[in-house]
């Protein structure tokens, strides 16, 4: 009788131990690290994600951050309005989106140092080249975040 109870306890513990890795593997906890790349037509990165990226890559000062954030928010709002404007053709939307990006770049030129702005322009150019080369869209909104360019 005692042997049967021990055998049963041993089998139960073995079963639980065998299941524990698979249970742990099925959690819904998001992975640590950078956020996933945005969808091709998903509107690009969020304002905060774009600001974080610019801060990392351009080394923004504390005084620059709120000014840059305001420009990015205005750009995002205009881009959202353009994406929702069903009266525009795809070409008209693209042209207007390019104007939004250019307007944002002009505003950023007044906020960033010449070195920062040169680096920003290089990143913007690289993102456009990637887009025109048939890239998957992962970097498409990275520098601009303007979505459908």
Which secondary structure elements does this structure contain, and how are they paired or packed?
Layout: H1 2-25, H2 47-58, H3 64-84, H4 90-109, H5 114-132
Helix pairs in contact: 2-3, 3-4
Structural class given helices, strands, pairing? mainly alpha
Question: What's the overall average pLDDT, rounded?
Answer: 76
Distance between the termini: 76 Å
Per DSSP, the total helix count is 5
Largest sheet: none
Indicate the proportion of strand residues.
under 5%
Q: What portion of residues is helical?
A: 55-70%
**Anisotropy-based shape:** elongated
Tally the beta strands: 0
What is the oligomer described by this structure? single chain
* Poorly predicted tracts of residues: 36-42, 137-149
Q: In angstroms, what is the radius of gyration?
A: 24 Å
> H/E element string?
HHHHH
Describe the structure.
- With 149 residues, this protein is an all-alpha fold.
- Helices cover 64% and strands 0% of the residues.
- The chain has a domain at 47-132.
- The protein is elongated, with a radius of gyration of 24 Å.
List keywords for this structure.
mainly alpha; single chain; 64% helix; 5 helices; 149 residues
How would you briefly describe this protein structure?
By secondary structure, the protein is mostly helical. It has 5 helices and no strands.
């Amino acid at each position: 009788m005692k042997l049967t109870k021990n055998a049963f306890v041993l089998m139960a513990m073995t079963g639980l131990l065998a299941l524990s890795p698979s249970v742990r593997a099925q959690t819904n906890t998001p992975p640590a690290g950078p956020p996933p790349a945005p969808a091709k037509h998903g509107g690009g990165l969020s304002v905060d994600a774009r600001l974080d990226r610019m801060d990392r890559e351009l080394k923004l000062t504390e005084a620059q951050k709120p000014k840059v954030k305001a420009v990015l928010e205005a750009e995002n709002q205009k881009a959202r309005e353009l994406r929702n404007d069903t009266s525009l053709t795809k070409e008209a939307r693209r042209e207007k989106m390019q104007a939004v990006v250019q307007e944002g770049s002009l505003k950023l030129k007044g906020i960033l140092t010449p070195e920062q702005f040169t680096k920003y322009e290089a990143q913007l150019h690289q993102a456009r080249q990637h887009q025109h080369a048939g890239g998957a869209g992962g970097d498409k909104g990275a520098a601009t975040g303007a979505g459908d360019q």
